[in-house]
């Protein structure tokens, strides 16, 4: 197949950027022709809010450029990842003009919430869910901490919902888990158009002995409020279990460094090879997130390493981590409950090792490049068939 992949890269590289690059490589390695159309938010940090506002509703340059790309390359399908703010939903219309099916990956909850996280003041917020116009997002400055920028996103979301962009111009949506699918249906998406395909990661552990003795815990991620770092810090004040905290940046970096102790060990940023080794040594990984999440790459990476996850009983994590089978759940935001689960993990190493084996089995069944490729191409063929007269 010939696939046009569209993505608006973020100012700070994150999971969506990584998934876009991975899927490009995956498709090319399986013999498909991939054409990339990307914008980069690092180029607009000083752009005027007026221009960003206009672009988020309709970016005429993106429409023209994508239309010309389609005319030239004649793709079988257009697969869009992120459109905000430079690409905009105009690319859907460029594809429709040439009768090319559109697949849109729902990496976040943007159609329900202008900041995409369903988060405000470090807690789950659903004030805009179900509203025709997401006025609270403007009041609380939910996008880029700016009322004008938030208003631009609200206008874009409301306008495109009103004219049927979300319901008519996207042939198939990809949700990353069943929880995300159910949430996105609340945005009014046609259920028959929303399918589930998780993220994936390549296997770095084929030659490793994942049954070797392991010890201690691990946190991997951005050092920020929504990831539950304050809960993690407070829980570890009462624990005598080693924890390596891997993360190269975030607004709570100073607090994490200040909390360093014999058992709470900030590591900072590590490259992929070093992270692979750290994951092989740990007995479990902790994900104390305060938000619903989409499909954190850390889940697939942990399962690939045979690492059970101690996770918040919240949103996607409650679905992706099976309590007592591939990890343990604790009440989100509850430091005492987290500490209790960590003590149980310390006192039951054989049970945790069994959960790690099941986590590895789950990875091999669901989250390998091979399994993901089959599902992705299935979605593409389904989209092409759906657009045929």
Give a brief outline of the structure.
With 389 residues, the protein is α/β, with parallel strands linked by helices.
Structure in words:
The chain is α/β, with parallel strands linked by helices. It folds into two domains: 2-200 and 369-387, 3-Layer(aba) Sandwich (Rossmann fold), CATH 3.40.50.2000; 217-366, Glycogen Phosphorylase B (Rossmann fold), CATH 3.40.50.2000. It has 16 helices and 14 strands. The chain has helices spanning 15-29, 49-57, 60-73, 90-97, 135-139, 147-162, 165-169, 178-185, 229-236, 253-258, 272-281, 297-304, 315-320, 335-347, 349-366, 369-387; strands at residues 2-9, 33-40, 77-80, 102-106, 119-120, 123-124, 172-175, 194-196, 217-220, 243-246, 264-268, 284-287, 309-312, 327-330. The strands form three sheets. The chain has a six-stranded parallel sheet with strand order 2-1-3-4-7-8, with helices on both faces. Helix 3 runs parallel beside helix 4 and helix 9 (229-236) crosses helix 14 (335-347). The longest helix has 19 residues, at 369-387. The model has no long low-confidence stretch (mean pLDDT 95).
